[in-house]
Amino acid sequence: MKPEDVIGIYDREGPAWAATRDRRLTERPWIDRALAIAPHPRGRKRVLDLGCGAGRPLAQYLLDCGAQVTGADASRPMIELFARTVPRAVALHADMRTLRLSQDFDFVLAWDSFFHLSPDDQRAMFPVFAAHLAPGGVLLFTSGPEAGEAIGRIGESDLYHASLSPQEYRSLFDTHGFEELGFWPEEPACGGRTIWMARRT
């Protein structure tokens, strides 16, 4: 199992998984906090959802909160499902690793998606995050609690996950102009996810 397999696995397994995804929105406290902190100098807050999947519950909730949402996903079946599920959002078939949009956002979200990248690709994402965040914009992502690789499961397929160490994420924040706002390792109120929040300075 390799990180290069992830997109193909979501092509194959993602739509069926999306139909059964937990929609209780345990993520809401962190989404709400990020929205409250994110700037909005030009009206509605602009959110970039990287690895957006099918759009529910997160993109739908962001839209319901009044945000403008752009979703990007490297899996064509998933972004097509996103476009149907949340038609008020902008849907982009794009790999987050090579994203080069000619706009910035108030809030960049990489929830349950960033951790499918290899360690080297995760390191290379921090300039991408910075390039797509307005000054003062908020970054929210999930990782593992410590450095390492793990294999999860989706449908009938194994699925790659990886994480850097907390110390390395903090070093990347410093290098790329981010201020850490919060770190919640293995948060029990959010299904054991490890959550990071940072602001572009």
Describe this structure in words.
There is one protein chain. With 201 residues, the chain is α/β, with parallel strands linked by helices. It has a single domain, classed as Rossmann fold (3-Layer(aba) Sandwich). 32% of the residues lie in helices and 32% in strands. It contains six helices and nine strands. It has helices at 6-19, 28-37, 58-64, 76-85, 119-131, 166-176, and strands spanning 46-50, 68-73, 90-93, 105-110, 133-143, 148-154, 157-163, 178-187, 193-200. It has a seven-stranded mixed β-sheet, with helices on both faces. It has a two-stranded antiparallel sheet with strand order 6-7. Helix 1 runs parallel beside helix 4 (76-85) and helix 5 runs parallel beside helix 6 (166-176). It starts with 5 loop residues before the first helix and ends with a strand.
